[in-house]
Amino acid sequence: MKEQFKLDNQLCFRLYTASRLLTQAYHPLLSEHGLTYPQYLVLMVLWEKDAQPVNDIAKRLMLETNTVTPLLKRMELQGILTRSKGSADARQVIITLTEKGQNLQNLLADVPMKVGSAVICKSVTSDTVPALFGMLDDIIAKLDN
Amino acid sequence: MKEQFKLDNQLCFRLYTASRLLTQAYHPLLSEHGLTYPQYLVLMVLWEKDAQPVNDIAKRLMLETNTVTPLLKRMELQGILTRSKGSADARQVIITLTEKGQNLQNLLADVPMKVGSAVICKSVTSDTVPALFGMLDDIIAKLDN
DNA sequence: TCTATTTATATCGTTTGCGATACAAAATTA
DNA sequence: TAATTTTGTATCGCAAACGATATAAATAGA
After folding, report:
1. Which of A127, A105, A103, A125 is CA-nearest to residue A116?
2. Where does residue A45 fall: left (phi above 0), alpha (psi -120 to 50 degrees), or beta otherwise?
3. What is the sign of the dihedral through the CA atoms of A35, A37, A41 and A44?
4. Most A CBs within 10 Å: which of B23, B44, B60, as the mutation test of the A interface?
5. Contact positions of strand C to protein Cβ (< 7 A)
6. What beta strand segments (E) does chain B contain?
7. Distance separating alpha carbons of residues B45 and B56, to the nearest angstrom
8. Contact state of A109 with B2 under an 8 Å Cβ cutoff
9. For strand D, which residues in window 13-72 of chain B come within 7 Å by CB?
10. Which residues of A touch B132 (CB under 8 A)?
11. 3 state SS of B145
12. What number is the average pLDDT over the span A41-65?
């Protein structure tokens, strides 16, 4: 058995597992409001800057539009946002938060701290998080084509 | 806009993105052999120790059996592994690699290095990877219930 | 032993994620 | 201007993930 194939030597498996488990930690907090984690990501994008075309949201999340489009349609059905034709460019679909979508920011106010405290451990503290962020950002930048 | 909701402050989004992009880096190397990344994970588990029940594979990958069962069935259809009733415990389904499944270890021999070299960057080197592994392992351990 | 509970898998339904493709609007070029 | 290419979004199909639930086999308790 080649050393390179050992599961314990895999960076990708660690990222994949950490990502899944941390997303699962969000689940009870988000499902309470009918949201999924990717939908929560869309909300964070729109809270930062409302009224963006589909493409800008997809780029910010580094996802393809064929992932984001149906996701946004489900959020529209929930009354969280609206989809309207762009006036300057008729191909664009502009996504705008409804009042319900705006209000979710208040309803979810305690989510970041609750999840954050679930992750703090020996090697992951306020001191080491910047280094971790730096490494993950470098990996993402290196793989972003 | 609350600071905690900024996308740039999110650990989970970074893990989610790094995981997706790194998995995408495996895609051309694996699809060449008709494999997906989760199927490659199953192969690594079985190369380490063949003839395991579904549950042990799921536990090793920290996945639920309802994820692993259909995945294994697709791999069985491809002739990569076989599913047989356990002799000691008739509830168990024992997963065993076929010769094709064994041989994939040789065909995929260069995958770890190819992907590994795609990730090496300023802050992620052979010196810093142990620290990164440690932090990810701690996060996983903290979230593993 | 007989019943109740636990365990190992599987099935079902929904949401992602993404490659491939389609299509109309805009931009570019001839 | 007419033809071509590019761009923004959407549709389709398939493979994960996972919560909820089902089912049969094994185990524990009465």
Report:
1. A125
2. alpha
3. positive
4. B44
5. 7-13, 15-21, 24-27
6. 52-53, 81-85, 93-97
7. 9
8. yes
9. 36-39, 63-64, 66-67, 70-71
10. 11, 132, 135
11. coil
12. 98
pLDDT band at B49 (very low <50, low <70, confident <90, very high): very high
Query: Terminal CA-to-CA distance of chain A, rounded, Å?
Result: 33
φ, ψ (nearest 5 deg) of residue B80:
-85, -30
How many other β-carbons are positioned within 10 Å of the β-carbon of residue B2?
Answer: 13
By DSSP bridging, strand A52-53 and strand A93-97 are antiparallel
Convert the pLDDT of each residue in A103-141 to its tens digit: 999 999 999 999 999 999 999 999 999 999 999 999 999
**Residues with Cβ < 8 Å from A137, sequence gap 6 or more?**
B14
